[in-house]
Amino acid sequence: MKKALILLVMLVSSAGVFAQTQWKVDPNHSSLNFDISHTGISIVNGKFLEYTGTLTTDGDALNAASFDFTVKVNSIDTSIEDRDNHLRSADFFEVEKYPNMTFKSTKMLATGKPEHYLLYGKLTIKDVTKDVIFDVYYGGIAKSDKGEKLGLKAKTTINRLDYNINYDPTAAALAKDVSILLHLQFAKQ
Q1: H or E element: which one contains 64?
Q2: Dist CA 181 CA 8 (whole Å)
Q3: What is the pLDDT along the chain (189 residues), one digit of tens a residue?
Q4: CA-based radius of gyration for the chain
Q5: Which DSSP symbol is given to 98?
Q6: Sequence ranges of the domains in the chain
Q7: Distance CA 85, CA 95 (A)
Q8: What is the rounded (10 degree) CA torsion for 158, 159, 163, 167?
Q9: In 3-state terms, what secondary structure has residue 24?
Q10: What is the C-alpha separation between 12 and 189, in angstroms, rounded?
Q11: What is the rounded CA–CA span in Å between residue 85 and residue 177?
Q12: Within a 10 A sphere around the Cβ of 43, how many other Cβ atoms?
């Protein structure tokens, strides 16, 4: 009887260690930003305003975290309406045909530096899915009477040509590399 009780306590304890915590992105305290070099002399930046995302962790640990994001491409905002409409067109994102871009993580690894991780995953833009790696900085968890929030900063660079976003009639106006910077706050569910 005593052995059975000890085994039961061990099973309950180990189940708690592997309990998954669900988090949902808080768009009121997050931003999805990008920038690209224009004519080699300046930077054009923008953001996406509509997106959903979830994060699943083992408790509060990020080591085995998984991410799932969907971005409404139509929500692109570079502060210039004509440019935004052009970016939505078949020359660039083709939002009528491809309304969403998605990211699904495959693994997350600690780098050895405090609060720094590498987030691996699949980024889909238009009809192309490619492997990407984000450098992630873990900002921590804040607790209040409104619940728990978790903060992250993630950045990467992609080649737009890899995703069939290859419009550039002058072959000199737009750089191929696009820098992506995400400031994310998640609410515990």
Answers
A1: strand 61-72
A2: 46
A3: 555 544 444 444 444 455 899 999 999 999 999 999 998 899 999 999 999 999 999 877 788 899 999 999 999 999 999 999 999 999 999 999 999 999 999 999 999 999 999 999 999 999 999 999 999 999 999 998 989 999 999 999 999 999 999 998 777 789 999 999 999 999 999
A4: 20
A5: -
A6: 21-188
A7: 10
A8: 130
A9: strand
A10: 22
A11: 21
A12: 10
Q: Which two tokens stand for residue 137?
A: 């900085």
Going 149 to 104 to 97 to 78, the CA torsion angle's sign is: positive
The CA distance from 84 to 82, in Å, is: 5
Report d(CA 156, CA 165) in Å as an integer.
Answer: 17
Q: How does 86-100 read in b/e, with b if 16+ C-beta sit within 10 Å?
A: ebbeeebbbbeebeb
The letter for the amino acid at 149 is K
Cβ proximity of 25 and 51 under 8 Å? yes
C-alpha distances (whole Å) from 68 to each of 71, 88, 155, 176 are 10, 23, 16, 26
Q: Within 10 A of 71 (CB to CB), how many other CB atoms are there?
A: 20
Number of Cβ within 10 Å of residue 24's Cβ equals 13
Cα Dmax for the chain? 80
Topology, domain 21-188: Lipocalin (2.40.128)
Predicted structure pTM score: 0.87
